[in-house]
Amino acid sequence: MPPETWYEPRENAQGYRVVVQDAGAGYRHVVTPGEVRDRLAMLPAEFTADLQIVQLSRMTRKKRSMPLYGMQWGPSIYLYPIEESLVESYSHPPTPAQLTEARMYGGHWEPAGSGGWRLVWTMEAVKDFYLNNILLHELGHLLDNRNTRTVDRERYAEWFAVHYGYLPTQPARRGKATG
Questions:
Q1: In the predicted structure, residue 94 carries a pLDDT above the cut 70
Q2: What's the rounded Cα separation, in Å, for the pair 31 and 114?
Q3: Domain of 154, in residue numbers
Q4: How far is CA 124 from CA 1, 103, 173, in A?
Protein backbone atom coordinates (compact mmCIF):
# COMPACT_ATOMS: atom_id res chain seq x y z
CA MET A 1 0.00 0.00 0.00
CA PRO A 2 1.34 3.44 -0.80
CA PRO A 3 1.75 5.61 2.32
CA GLU A 4 -0.35 8.41 0.79
CA THR A 5 -3.05 9.04 -1.77
CA TRP A 6 -1.72 7.28 -4.85
CA TYR A 7 -1.98 9.16 -8.12
CA GLU A 8 -1.68 6.84 -11.07
CA PRO A 9 1.22 8.08 -13.24
CA ARG A 10 -0.05 9.60 -16.47
CA GLU A 11 1.56 8.81 -19.80
CA ASN A 12 2.86 11.88 -21.61
CA ALA A 13 1.81 14.13 -18.74
CA GLN A 14 2.32 17.80 -19.49
CA GLY A 15 3.31 19.57 -16.29
CA TYR A 16 2.28 18.90 -12.73
CA ARG A 17 -0.70 19.88 -10.62
CA VAL A 18 -0.92 20.95 -7.00
CA VAL A 19 -3.51 19.19 -4.83
CA VAL A 20 -4.48 20.69 -1.46
CA GLN A 21 -5.98 18.62 1.34
CA ASP A 22 -7.31 20.12 4.56
CA ALA A 23 -4.34 20.35 6.97
CA GLY A 24 -6.30 19.03 9.93
CA ALA A 25 -7.30 20.53 13.28
CA GLY A 26 -4.39 22.36 14.90
CA TYR A 27 -2.21 22.23 11.77
CA ARG A 28 -1.52 24.52 8.82
CA HIS A 29 0.05 24.42 5.41
CA VAL A 30 2.88 26.94 5.34
CA VAL A 31 3.14 27.29 1.57
CA THR A 32 0.50 27.95 -1.04
CA PRO A 33 0.09 26.29 -4.44
CA GLY A 34 1.25 29.54 -6.05
CA GLU A 35 4.42 29.63 -3.94
CA VAL A 36 5.17 26.02 -4.87
CA ARG A 37 4.68 26.79 -8.58
CA ASP A 38 6.79 29.96 -8.36
CA ARG A 39 9.65 28.13 -6.63
CA LEU A 40 9.64 25.22 -9.07
CA ALA A 41 9.54 27.67 -12.00
CA MET A 42 12.97 28.96 -10.87
CA LEU A 43 14.51 25.58 -11.75
CA PRO A 44 15.48 24.28 -15.18
CA ALA A 45 12.38 22.80 -16.84
CA GLU A 46 13.94 19.34 -17.09
CA PHE A 47 13.96 19.13 -13.28
CA THR A 48 10.15 19.11 -13.16
CA ALA A 49 9.53 17.19 -16.40
CA ASP A 50 8.66 13.95 -14.55
CA LEU A 51 6.84 15.60 -11.64
CA GLN A 52 3.08 15.07 -11.85
CA ILE A 53 1.65 15.97 -8.41
CA VAL A 54 2.63 18.17 -5.49
CA GLN A 55 0.19 17.50 -2.69
CA LEU A 56 -0.20 19.63 0.43
CA SER A 57 -1.27 16.71 2.61
CA ARG A 58 -3.40 16.38 5.71
CA MET A 59 -1.96 15.53 9.11
CA THR A 60 -2.73 12.02 10.34
CA ARG A 61 -2.15 10.28 13.65
CA LYS A 62 0.59 8.15 12.09
CA LYS A 63 2.45 11.21 10.73
CA ARG A 64 2.20 12.87 14.15
CA SER A 65 4.05 9.89 15.65
CA MET A 66 7.02 10.27 13.29
CA PRO A 67 7.92 13.83 12.35
CA LEU A 68 7.93 14.21 8.61
CA TYR A 69 7.90 17.36 6.50
CA GLY A 70 7.68 15.77 3.08
CA MET A 71 7.91 12.61 1.02
CA GLN A 72 8.37 11.59 -2.61
CA TRP A 73 6.43 8.62 -3.94
CA GLY A 74 6.55 7.84 -7.64
CA PRO A 75 6.06 11.04 -9.67
CA SER A 76 4.48 12.79 -6.67
CA ILE A 77 5.76 14.99 -3.84
CA TYR A 78 3.83 15.27 -0.59
CA LEU A 79 4.33 18.22 1.77
CA TYR A 80 2.99 17.87 5.31
CA PRO A 81 1.50 20.57 7.53
CA ILE A 82 2.96 21.70 10.83
CA GLU A 83 1.45 23.00 14.04
CA GLU A 84 -0.64 26.17 13.66
CA SER A 85 1.50 27.78 16.36
CA LEU A 86 4.67 27.15 14.27
CA VAL A 87 6.13 25.54 17.40
CA GLU A 88 7.00 21.85 17.13
CA SER A 89 7.47 19.78 20.28
CA TYR A 90 9.99 16.96 20.60
CA SER A 91 10.77 14.56 23.45
CA HIS A 92 14.49 14.29 22.58
CA PRO A 93 17.16 16.92 21.99
CA PRO A 94 17.90 17.76 18.36
CA THR A 95 20.76 16.05 16.57
CA PRO A 96 23.64 18.22 15.35
CA ALA A 97 22.25 17.89 11.80
CA GLN A 98 18.79 19.04 12.96
CA LEU A 99 20.33 22.02 14.77
CA THR A 100 22.29 23.02 11.68
CA GLU A 101 19.37 22.58 9.28
CA ALA A 102 17.00 24.66 11.42
CA ARG A 103 19.63 27.39 11.84
CA MET A 104 20.22 27.53 8.06
CA TYR A 105 16.57 28.46 7.49
CA GLY A 106 15.85 30.53 10.59
CA GLY A 107 14.35 27.92 12.93
CA HIS A 108 15.28 28.11 16.62
CA TRP A 109 15.60 25.12 18.97
CA GLU A 110 14.96 25.72 22.66
CA PRO A 111 14.67 23.47 25.70
CA ALA A 112 11.18 22.85 27.04
CA GLY A 113 10.19 21.55 30.46
CA SER A 114 10.68 17.90 31.45
CA GLY A 115 13.60 17.33 29.09
CA GLY A 116 11.63 18.12 25.95
CA TRP A 117 12.60 20.47 23.16
CA ARG A 118 10.79 22.91 20.90
CA LEU A 119 11.58 23.98 17.37
CA VAL A 120 10.21 27.49 16.87
CA TRP A 121 9.63 29.02 13.44
CA THR A 122 8.50 32.36 12.11
CA MET A 123 6.20 32.19 9.09
CA GLU A 124 8.93 33.67 6.87
CA ALA A 125 11.50 31.12 8.10
CA VAL A 126 9.26 28.08 7.75
CA LYS A 127 8.23 29.10 4.21
CA ASP A 128 11.91 29.38 3.32
CA PHE A 129 12.53 25.95 4.89
CA TYR A 130 9.71 24.29 2.93
CA LEU A 131 10.34 25.99 -0.42
CA ASN A 132 14.14 25.86 -0.47
CA ASN A 133 14.76 22.66 1.47
CA ILE A 134 11.84 20.25 1.83
CA LEU A 135 10.31 20.73 -1.63
CA LEU A 136 13.70 20.56 -3.35
CA HIS A 137 14.90 17.64 -1.21
CA GLU A 138 11.88 15.62 -2.33
CA LEU A 139 12.39 16.72 -5.94
CA GLY A 140 15.97 15.49 -5.60
CA HIS A 141 14.61 12.05 -4.69
CA LEU A 142 12.41 12.11 -7.81
CA LEU A 143 15.39 13.01 -10.01
CA ASP A 144 17.81 10.49 -8.46
CA ASN A 145 17.86 7.57 -10.86
CA ARG A 146 21.35 6.33 -9.94
CA ASN A 147 21.35 5.56 -6.24
CA THR A 148 19.59 2.56 -4.75
CA ARG A 149 20.86 2.54 -1.17
CA THR A 150 18.83 4.67 1.23
CA VAL A 151 21.90 6.44 2.60
CA ASP A 152 23.03 7.38 -0.91
CA ARG A 153 19.54 8.56 -1.92
CA GLU A 154 19.35 10.77 1.19
CA ARG A 155 22.82 12.17 0.57
CA TYR A 156 21.87 13.06 -3.02
CA ALA A 157 18.55 14.67 -2.00
CA GLU A 158 20.31 16.72 0.68
CA TRP A 159 22.96 17.84 -1.82
CA PHE A 160 20.26 18.75 -4.35
CA ALA A 161 18.34 20.86 -1.81
CA VAL A 162 21.47 22.72 -0.72
CA HIS A 163 22.76 23.23 -4.27
CA TYR A 164 19.47 24.29 -5.88
CA GLY A 165 17.58 25.62 -2.84
CA TYR A 166 19.72 26.98 -0.04
CA LEU A 167 22.78 28.33 -1.87
CA PRO A 168 20.98 30.28 -4.62
CA THR A 169 18.72 31.93 -2.04
CA GLN A 170 21.51 32.80 0.41
CA PRO A 171 21.83 36.46 -0.72
CA ALA A 172 18.12 37.08 -0.09
CA ARG A 173 18.33 35.34 3.29
CA ARG A 174 21.33 37.46 4.34
CA GLY A 175 19.53 40.62 3.20
CA LYS A 176 16.58 39.77 5.46
CA ALA A 177 18.87 39.16 8.40
CA THR A 178 20.67 42.49 8.04
CA GLY A 179 18.02 44.64 6.40
A1: yes
A2: 32
A3: 17-178
A4: 35, 13, 10
Q: Identify the sign of the CA torsion 40, 80, 71, 162.
A: positive
Is 4 a domain residue? no
How many structural domains are present in the chain? 1
- Domain contains 12: no
Is the distance from CB of 26 to CB of 58 less than 8 angstroms? no
Q: Given 3-state DSSP classes, what are the helix, strand and coil percentages for the chain, each rounded to the nearest 5?
A: 45, 20, 35
Q: What gap in Å lies between CA 132 and CA 147, rounded to an integer? A: 22
User: Which helix H or strand E contains 70, and what residues bound it?
Assistant: strand 70-73
Q: Answer whether 0.85 is exceeded by the pTM.
A: yes
* Per-residue model confidence (pLDDT) at position 179: 43
Question: Would you state the pLDDT for residue 2?
Answer: 53
Within a domain: 125: yes
Q: Which of 132, 142, 140, 138 is nearest to 160 (CA)?
A: 140
